[in-house]
Amino acid sequence: MSGAILVLEDGRTFRGESYGAAGETFGEAVFNTGMTGYQETLTDPSYHRQVVVMTAPHIGNTGVNDEDPESRRIWVAGYVVRDPARRVSNWRATRSLDDELRGQGVVGISGIDTRALTRHLRERGAMRVGISSTETDPAALLDRVRASGEMAGSELASEVSTGEAYVVPAIGPKRLTVAALDLGIKSMTPHRLAERGVEVHVLPATATLEEITAVNPDGLFYSNGPGDPAATTHQVEVLQGALAEGIPYFGICFGNQLFGRALGFGTYKLKYGHRGINQPVLDRTTGKTEVTAHNHGFAVDAPLDGSTTTPYGEASVSHVCLNDDVVEGLELRDGSGRLKGFSVQYHPEAAAGPHDAAYLFDRFVELLGGFETGASAPSSTTEPVVEVRGAQATSLETTTDGKDA
Ligand SMILES: NC(=O)CC[C@H](N)C(=O)O
Where is this region: CPSase (predicted)? Predict the structure, then answer.
C-alpha cells in the first residue's frame, strides 16, 4: 500500500493510503451518510466535481455489479473512505470496488478518520479539497487546492448530459408521453415513469422549447444534476416558456431549484448540504412525513408560509425538511387551485431506497390525466420492499431467506 494525503482548503490535512486509482484530484469535499447504495452514489452525475466522504466506516463489502449503476460511469471527483472491505461478498458482484475505481481512473483515499473529517465539514462547511498519492508536501497540494474551481457559480449540467436524445419506452400499455431534460439524469428516474406507462423522451440539457414541444409531450420533467442552479440560465428560460404554454411540470432536485428560479425565487448554497438516504421530509399537502434520499448542496429560498403570485400562477412550498426547515418541494396552482406543476428537492426514484416518496410519480401521472381511463394509481403498498434491478428482481421473501445482500 502506498501513502496518500488529503488537504482541505483551510489547510487541515489527513494522511491515509491510496485507494482506487493513483494520482491527484480536486473537488468540493462533501459527506454522504448512506449506509447502503455506494454504487448508486458513485454513479450519480450530481456528484460531478465533488469529492465524496462516506460516513459509513466500511465500504465495498458487496463489491460492484452491473445492475446498480445510475449512469454510464462513476462521476465523483474523488472518494474518501475509512476502512475498505478486503473481501467482496455478494452473489451479484463481478468485481471489487477498488478494482472498479482503478479501472475508471477515480482517485481515492482510505484509512481516513472520516468521522473527524465529517465533523470538520459540518462545522466549517463544504470546501475545496485535494487528494494525492503523488505529492508528499501538504503545503504544495494546498496551493493547488486553492487554485482549483469553486462549486458556487459553476454550470455543470452540460458536462454530464446526454449529447443525443433517446426514448425510454413505456413498460406495458403506453398512457402518456413525457419530455425529460437530462441535466444529469439517473437511470432509475425514466424507469419509474416508464413503469407507470409513460414513454420518456430524454433530451439533452441544451434542448430548446421548440425541441421539447416537437415531442408533443403531456408533461415536462427536469432531472437532478450537478452545479449551481444560479449559473444554469438557459433551462430556466425554457421552463418559463413551458409554464407559459401551460405544459404540466415535475422536477427532481436540480429540477426543483430550476423550478424555483423560474418562479422568481432565489437559490443559495447550504453550509454542508444534505446527502444520505434517511432525511425526514414533511409533505404539507397530506401532513405525512416520509424518509427520503437526498443529494443537494443548494436550496430554494422561498417563503415557508403562504403563497407567492407569479406570472404562471400561485407558488407555494409543499415539502419541508424536518431537520432544518429547508425547502424540499414546490407547487404551482392556477387561480382556481388546480395543480400546474410541482417539484421536490430530494429523490423519489431512490434506487437504493427508501421508497416512501414513490407516490410523487403517481402524482405526476395523475396531473397528466394518466389515470382518467379507469386505471387507478398503483398503490405504494405494491412497491416491492427490496428492489434489485436487472433480471433478478427480489422480493421480501428472498430477503428473509437470507439470499439477498
Ligand atoms: N442532486 C441534485 O440535483 C443536486 C442539485 C445541485 N447541484 C445541488 O447540489 O444542490
Answer: 1-173
